[in-house]
Amino acid sequence: MIEARGLTKKYGDRTAVDGISFTVHPGRVTGFLGPNGAGKSTTMRMLLGLDRPTAGSITVHGRSYADFPAPLRQVGALLEARALHPGRSARDHLRWMAASNGLPVRRVDEVLDLVGLTDVAGQRVGRFSLGMGQRLGIAVALLGDPPVVVLDEPVNGLDPEGIRWVRTLTRQLAAEGRTVFLSSHLMSEMALTADHLVVIGRGRVLADCSMPDFIAEHAASFVRVRSPQRAEVAELLRRDGLEVTAVDDELRVQGRDAAGIGELVGRQGHLLHELTLVSSSLEDAFMTLTAASVEYTARDRTPAGATR
Amino acid sequence: MTGTLSTPVPDTVALDPNRHVPGARDPGFAQTLRAEWVKFWSVRSTPWSIGALVALGAGLTVLVCAVSAADLAEGTTGEAAGSFITWGMTVAQITAIVLGALVVTSEYGTGMIRATLTATPHRGRVLAAKALVLTGTLFVAGTVTAVLGYLGGNWFLEREGIGLALGDDGILRSLLGSGLYMAGIGLFAAAVGLLVRHTAAALSIVLALLLVVGNMVMLLPGAWGEWATKLMPGNAGSVVATPVSFNPDLLDPWTGFAVFCAEVAAVLLAGYLVLRRRDA
To answer: Do B27 and A176 touch (CB under 8 A)?
Structure first.
């Protein structure tokens, strides 16, 4: 379990993380989502004791990271920026990390095998592709078989097969009862992997809810209606209590499904040119949510995806 | 929690208690030391630096003895043979400085420091292990280099009848002192590396301080110049590494080395405080 309480980080007069609080529970994948520069990596660094919070705290099982005598056996982390010396071989990198936490060398071969790097273990990591580097990072995270796994942008640079592998792996780690905390700026990836979402923008928590709740609340859908008798149709639908927005030559209707709207319009004998259910994607929902945080504007009533 | 999930979410999960890697031990300083040792020897810069140290230190001593043995025997130079028998170390110290700086700054340059500190969040322990690995290696390499230089250089001196015996005044002291000085100057560079976190900057500062400022202060007038010269780290620390110093005005070998150690300790303390307080 990871707990952030009033966590704040300021660099000079710039506030990177602005008093955020959230809890990451075991047994599920919690996605940490935000645009670049939202404060995700700063939060991760504070979690790992690399950066000191200006105020507040972030703890694992109630303890600060620095208080663990063998932290790799408690928290496994993949850091976004590569934390590797390019001249060292993958095996040597894992070897010194294992030594530092009193782990047997045998474990190095196990994780190399797990991430599929056994054949290139002796190569200098400077020659690794981005994807191989990510795999090595995941090997590092799993080295101590930790109950808490923190992955910062794990699918960056991976090919589709690698992305699927990470997805399966994170789901499996959560199913084993581990706490999995996964950061990404890609909503589409989160939608497939995470059970729970913590969304941040400009250093503040914008949403902290389950994935279904997030979809229900933010990924709104509407029915697009086109008709040569636009004004009459709009009037008709409004009278029936539906929410209607006119955009260009179309009407966007919320509050009833396409069939219901079609019947209502048809009974009055109006002509319909189009009647389409438009579901906005999670990506759009995320964009809308975070864009609002950037602009500090009041919540727009236009459903997400309306700009399409 | 506002979440409603299709599957119930437990607040605590009992992981298999045997899940942990079998054979794992609780880490202490020995594990940190072991980790730093593996790190130190698994990059190419280490064997290269040590190789260069031995080649330059021993090779230049032999060369300078071979070239000047005849003149020294005639006594026309006005210098003692003891000033030449560890001469190569004055050049070899550059490799010790490079190695010392890299041990720290390569971690910051590559981002490795983040891996290091997540593996061992106890920053003082990391620094102590690093310092021990670096100084231990440099002490052994420096002493071996000085002995090799002595053996080779003395062969030429003996041919001219001015050979130096191991039992002669200051010979053994200078051979061990070469190892001590290499360890000290490497640690000094590492400490500066902790302060500036940048390879080129650390090297520039240390080399300028030793090779440029250390000699320039001799130009300062009066007692100021005299003491500044005596107290500059390179000048104070290197006397212990040579049987007879070229500059007779410098501090005595062990006094000088004590001053040098205090200076290294001061910079190292500053480096430690920065390592502890600043974000990695």
So the answer is: no
